[in-house]
Amino acid sequence: xxxxxxxxxxxxxxxxxxxxxxxxxxxxxxxxxxxxxxxxxxxxxxxxxxxxxxxxxxxxxxxxxxxxxxxxxxxxxxxxxxxxxxxxxxxxxxxxxxxxxxxxxx
Length: 106
Ligand SMILES: [Cu+2]
Description:
The chain is α+β, with helices and mostly antiparallel strands. The protein has 3 helices and 4 strands. The longest helix has 27 residues, at 2-28. The chain starts with a helix and ends with a strand. The relative contact order is 0.19.
């Protein structure tokens, strides 16, 4: 009786372990680092100096790889690592550093 119980438990544990291994493998196929580009609305830029300020502020954010800004369009295009930051966090950080009103363009 006891042997059967132990055997049943071993089969059960073995089954769970197999399922876990399959799950671990499927999550591993996704790369940890993903470069994405998002467009921000930036309100209040009036010249190329403003563009530069926004660009510099964006590039200082951890996870941001590149940034472009256009005062004519009132936008900033930010290239970032989605494992490290998000468009919302970038918009907030730019607003805090520059004082311009920012938001994620949708
Ligand atoms: Cu300016």
